[in-house]
Design goal:
With 621 residues, this protein is an alpha+beta fold. It has 5 domains: 96 residues, Zinc finger, CHC2-typedomain (DNA Primase, Chain A, Alpha-Beta Complex); 125 residues, DNA primase DNAg catalytic core, N-terminal domain, CATH 3.90.980.10; 126 residues, Dna Topoisomerase Vi A Subunit, Chain: A, domain 2, CATH 3.40.1360.10; 66 residues, no CATH class; 142 residues, DNAb Helicase, Chain A, CATH 1.10.860. The chain is built from 26 helices and 17 strands. The strands form 4 sheets. Strands 12-14-13-15-16-17 form a 6-stranded mixed β-sheet, with helices on both faces. Helix 1 packs across helix 4. The longest helix is centred in the C-terminal third of the chain and has 30 residues. 34% of the residues are buried.
Length: 621
């Protein structure tokens, strides 16, 4: 069943070698506040820093959504991998070999994919820097004004025009074709056997995640190329890469962005590279897609503000309207900067240096203001019709959004409507009425759609409440696995009524019976299908670790369970006594009850003279 034995000390070794602040800080921005570090929770739409990372306990907790765990569970949640794969990734990070016999191949999948991307990145860069085939690519990058240092730092490469250049290199180096296909670098031929390269005669821009690991590529076809195909070609979606989520340059830009307070979004790879080359390092690019909600939620982990860069020609209705939708529906400041007509950021930076570009960023206005300015330049605000068209254009975009929930959303919408009313000299009530009309027009005929107050929303089922003694029993055992054997001899699994706690106890019992250490690290391997229960187990363990007198605490709990069993037996005997008609049977039951009453009194007296007169923490027991 387990396939890949994980020694308990090796799991500990991996955790000890991966400080949780360092690991989590590689995914999102953290700021030290006292003894802990705070940031925006990556697991829900956090509007304030609710995410706590505690270096002393090596734990994280979100005080809003309840996520809780250690460094391994964080990687599991963030990267959407199972326990073993998260452990493998962290072991690779620390240079630790987990097992001499080798891990389960499935657990290594993400690590192997990253290794393949690392190999391909180095191969493509070596080709760009040294191979005569790459001379046209080197000439193109030189004409774009990019320095050799930038080319090397960002790992730029070149894929020759041959259909099998990478395929042949993989064959020579014993690199798996299946893995190369999974990361989108090669594909199977439609007719006959064999493979072919997806990227041909292109300058390659490695796309890295926030930790600097290559997860995809963007390819720019050389202007002199005889190959047919789009000018820009990105990796297809893979287990590592999604073009609707990834941002080019975020690994290089995030630290500077955290200092200046915002990130700048441009459209091209060379725009990003030239900006960084000239010292404007808070710049990233989307993967040929418009900025979307997933991008914004990712960026919010690092900065409170995003500046979109449009040139005067490209900043048309679609881009501006989409920016306004995001501005209205998300808790983030989204601004728009305009460049001179006909110039992209790279052209402007090359021609005029960083000054004009930086000034454009500093003069950026929020998406609502930009939309108003755009419409005011297009329509005559002195006429009734012109003013009506301006108001309609802005409200029509806002009507398409789902408002930010809660009071934060209500305040933001109020401020937006107040500004529109003042700029157009209209009553706010009139604008609200028109917005409601536009929203109703967009709802389905059956009336489904967002309603104020959230009435009619299905409420989640209430979670089962656990008896205090059952909860505390698991707190003790998860904090002190050496006590599992003692409990196994005293408490049957069926005595635990709460289904979640019963499953945790069953897992501990199974490990104990198989001779394996009944630790939470070992237990979570077998509970990968139930993340919320593992999350709860960490909370229980954390409370148990806060108690130093766990043996005394357990003695009191065992006595409480004994009394609970006795009460259950007594109750059943009384029920039988009331239901029986036979005098002899009734007399036997009555004697049994009296005998148990005497024994219970004697046991209680004995316990009262001992060191553990009862559970020390039981609430309401």
């Amino acid at each position: 069943m387990r396939g890949w034995p994980l020694a308990n000390d090796r799991v500990k070794l991996v955790k000890q070698a991966n400080d949780i602040v360092d690991v989590v800080g590689g995914y999102l921005a953290l700021r030290q506040t006292g003894k802990t570090f705070k940031g925006l929770c990556p697991f829900h739409n956090d509007t304030r820093p609710s995410f706590d990372v505690d270096p002393a306990r090596q734990r994280y907790r979100c005080w809003s959504c309840g996520k809780f765990g250690d460094v391994i569970s964080f990687v599991q949640e963030f990267d959407h991998v199972d326990f073993r794969e998260a452990l493998s990734l962290l072991a690779r990070r620390a240079g630790i070999t987990l097992d001499d016999t080798g891990p389960d191949p499935r657990a290594e999948s993400r690590g192997q994919l990253l290794d393949v991307m690392r190999w391909a990145t180095a191969l493509f860069q070596e080709c760009l820097l040294e191979d005569p085939l790459a001379e046209p690519a080197r000439k193109y990058l030189g004409e774009r004004g990019l320095l050799g240092e930038v080319v090397r730092t960002w790992g730029l490469g070149y894929a020759p025009g041959s259909w099998e250049w990478l395929v042949n290199a993989a064959r020579d180096n014993n690199v798996s074709f299946d893995l190369l296909e999974k990361v989108g670098l090669i594909a199977r031929r439609d007719k006959g056997d064999g493979w072919y390269d997806r990227f041909r005669d292109r300058v390659l821009f490695p796309i890295r995640d926030v930790r600097g690991q290559t997860v995809g590529f963007g390819g720019r076809l050389l202007p002199s190329s005889a190959s047919k195909g789009p000018k820009y070609y990105n990796s297809c979606d893979t287990p590592l890469f999604s073009k609707s989520e990834q941002l080019y340059g975020l690994d290089q830009a995030r630290q500077v962005a955290e200092k200046v307070g915002y990130l700048t979004i441009v459209e091209g790879y060379t725009d990003v590279l030239m900006a960084h080359q000239l010292g404007v390092r808070q710049v990233v690019a989307t993967m040929g897609t418009a900025l979307n909600e997933r991008h914004v939620k990712q960026l919010r982990r690092f900065v409170p503000r995003v500046v979109l860069v449009f040139d005067a020609d490209a900043g048309g209705d679609t881009g501006v309207d989409r920016a306004l939708e995001l501005f209205a529906s998300l808790d983030m400041e989204l601004a728009i900067a305009s460049l001179p007509a006909g110039l992209d950021p790279c052209d402007l930076l090359v021609q005029s240096g960083p000054g004009p570009f930086v000034r454009a960023l500093e003069s950026a206005v929020d998406a609502l203001e930009h939309k108003l300015l755009q419409m005011l330049a297009r329509e005559d605000a002195e006429t009734v019709e012109g003013r009506f068209r301006i108001a309609h254009a802005v409200l029509e975009v806002i009507a398409q959004t789902t408002p930010l929930p809660g009071q934060a959303g209500a305040v933001k919408m109020e401020l937006m409507m107040t500004r529109i009313a003042r700029r157009l000299a209209l009553k706010e009530e009139t604008l609200w009425a028109r917005l409601d009309e536009l929203r109703r027009a967009r709802r389905p005929a059956d009336g489904a759609g967002p309603h104020r107050g959230g009435q009619g929303a299905t409420q989640p089922a209430e979670k089962a409440r656990a008896a205090p003694e059952e909860r505390e029993l698991l707190e003790v055992l998860l904090a002190d696995p050496d006590l599992v054997g003692e409990v196994f001899a005293c408490i049957a699994l069926e005595e635990i009524e709460h289904p979640g706690l019963r499953r945790l106890l069953q897992g501990l019992y199974d490990l104990h019976q198989s001779g394996e250490p009944p630790t939470l690290d070992r237990l979570r391997e077998d509970m990968q299908d139930n993340g919320p229960l593992v999350n709860k187990a960490f909370e229980l363990q954390d409370r148990g670790l806060a108690r130093a007198d766990r043996q005394v605490w357990l003695s009191g709990l065992l006595e409480h369970f004994r009394q609970r069993r006795e009460k259950s037996v007594t109750r059943k005997l009384k029920e039988r006594l009331h239901a029986v008609d036979d005098h002899a049977t009734a007399l036997e039951l009555l004697r049994n009850l009296q005998s148990r009453s005497v024994e219970a009194g004697s046991g209680a007296s004995s316990q009262g003279n001992g060191p553990a007169s009862g559970p020390t923490r039981l609430a309401g027991a």
